[in-house]
Prior knowledge:
Elements: E1 8-10, E2 17-25, E3 30-33, E4 38-45, E5 48-52, E6 55-59, E7 64-67, E8 73-77, E9 83-90, H1 100-105, E10 108-109, H2 112-125, H3 131-149, H4 162-175, H5 182-189, H6 193-204, H7 208-225, H8 230-236, H9 242-253, H10 257-274
Helix pairs in contact: 2-3, 3-6, 4-6, 4-7, 7-8
Amino acid sequence: MVDHSQIRAWRPPVAGIDEVFHAHITDHVYPMHTHEMWTLLIVDNGMVRYDLERHEHGALDQTVTLLPPNVPHNGRSVTPDGFRKRVVYLDASQLEDSLIGLAVDSPVLDDPLLRRRIHQLHLTLEDQGDELEAESMLALVSERLRDHLHRRVEDRAQVQDSGIAHRLRELLDERFVQGISLQEASETLHVHPAHLVRVFSRELGMGPHQYLIGRRVDLARRLLLRGMAPRLAAAAAGFYDQSHFNRHFKRFLGISPGRYARSGAARTQAVGLVR
Length: 275
């Protein structure tokens, strides 16, 4: 059976991801079927057994499973309590069809770094407004998947390109209120998205999304101290909605926008009384 209380499926506004699916499966058995998209699966609890191209495989909670499009597969739980899985379905912009054969040969990837990045991608996809962060993580995930399929996993952590990093910073400074997608930045600067994320993060010590959010919080803080209402400051600084604004403002400053605004108003009134 499927635990319907613990199923979530949605289509995030992130280029390259067709669908996100979270589920707790107990004794349900998936028949042979196919997907038009690449299926990127991680298991949080339990174990999945499946057949792919007449070969049996297992998906464990420490590994990553990549099932290619249009190749029949099934699925069933191995453990009595079932399994919990998280899936992102990727389109051909992330992995081209020429890699299908390689994925059939090696659908299970034992790579802790890749699994952590996929986990972080899922966490980011939970909240609207953080699409640049999701795009950044997706770029790194897709790059590493491609490396695995080509059997040439590389450590690019030390890659430097300060010129490109600062050109991206200038672009973010110009567009931090209206926002910019990673794909648009990549096309503007003629640099691969994953390379952009990597060199920016190494040069500035934070990812592009965190830099952009920091600029928005800084603007919103100034607007609040000038007397603008929090909901208006959120919109003026480029936040998706009030919840998005509150979450990031408190994460950066340790205080809610409303309390911050009230503290500024109280200080202004006290100064006025003294005068």
